[in-house]
Amino acid sequence: MGYLRSWQPAVHTIFFVMMIGEAVAQDRCADLDPTTDAVGYQVRTDDERCEGFYRSPIRDAAIEIVSLTLGSVLYNLETDHSLTVSVPQSLGTVAGEINIRSVALPLGVYYRMDARVASGGAMTWPLDHILKPAKLGAAAIGIFGWIGEGKPELYMPVAVAVESNKTPPVASRSDGILLSLRFPVDVDTLQWRFWVDGKERELDLSWRSGVAQGLRTGETATLTIPDGESAVLILEIAVRRADTGEWRKRKIRLLRP
Q1: Closest Cα to residue 55, out of 36, 78, 77, 71?
Q2: What's the per-residue H, E or C state across the chain?
Q3: Residue 112: strand pairing partners
Q4: Which class for 198: exposed (0-12), middle (13-18), buried (19 or more C-beta within 10 A)?
């Protein structure tokens, strides 16, 4: 029976490697309350991402980032099967893995995908597993990247393309850098401005209008960030509540590749 004992170290090694892989994948998952069916938020072991639906907790009333992309996200649930999500080669101040998150835009649809991609790298995002069965098309999905679990986070735009396309997705920025925000209250005015981090006093900080008309609770507004030199930008958002006239502001750090 000596040959059985000789296999034991190899079996233990395989088991240990499997446990480490599962732990690494699980580390990508957020602390959510998943639904109990097959499309509930969980580790998807094919490419170590976490994806699915969850039960929503009570949310705080904050201006929420729901998408930051290089160009528009376009795909067809009927004909496409997977997407490529790529992140730009970051500035020298950013290294290591970039957090990737996708959320559903419609109210009451609690979907999320979490993953990590190396700076300048890419991941495959299957449509057939969750998005296609749930009928979540491109107009219903936001996606963005960021680093820094604490505050202030640095948000990074991602490029999304159908995997069969030959054009590298990182080159798909004909629409510019698109930032989508969601609001917890009805707003009648949205203003925004930005400057290069550390150069606030050198720039014209006049406010830009963000929407032509008001937005209802849970609706999104998309801002186009002007092209320019690669830099970390500070974006300041100001919205006025439609019911009380109270102004709310939020500052966002984002990378313009």
Answers
A1: 36
A2: CHHHHHHHHHHHHHHHHHHHHHHHHHCCCCCCEECCCCCECEEECCCCEEEEEEECCCCCCCCEEEEEEECCCCCCCCCCCEEEEECCCCCCCCCCEEEEEEEECCCCCCEEEEEEEECCCEEEEECCCCHHHHCCCHHHEEEEEEECCCCCCEEECEEEEECCCCCCHHHCCCCCEEEEEECCCCEEEEEEEEEECCCHHHCCCCCEECCCCCECCCCEEEEEECCCCCEEEEEEEEEEECCCCCEEEEEEEEEEC
A3: 52, 103
A4: exposed
| The total number of structural domains that make up the chain | 1
Tell whether 55 is covered by a domain.
yes
Task: Report if residue 178 sits inside a domain.
Answer: yes
**CA distances (Å), 228 to each of 90, 126, 165, in order?**
15, 33, 27
Q: What is the span of the domain harbouring residue 65?
A: 31-256
Question: pTM for the whole thing?
Answer: 0.83
- Residue 8 within a domain: no
pLDDT at position 15 over 90: no
Give ∠ CA 116-110-136 in degrees, rounded to 5.
80
pLDDT digits (tens, 9 = 90+) for 142-166: 999 999 866 679 999 999 999 876 4
The conformational region for residue 23 under phi > 0 = left, psi -120 to 50 = alpha, else beta, is alpha
Mean of pLDDT values over 163-184: 70
pLDDT digits (tens, 9 = 90+) for 178-231: 999 999 889 999 999 999 998 876 666 789 988 767 899 889 999 999 989 899
Note whether residue 14 is domain-resident. no
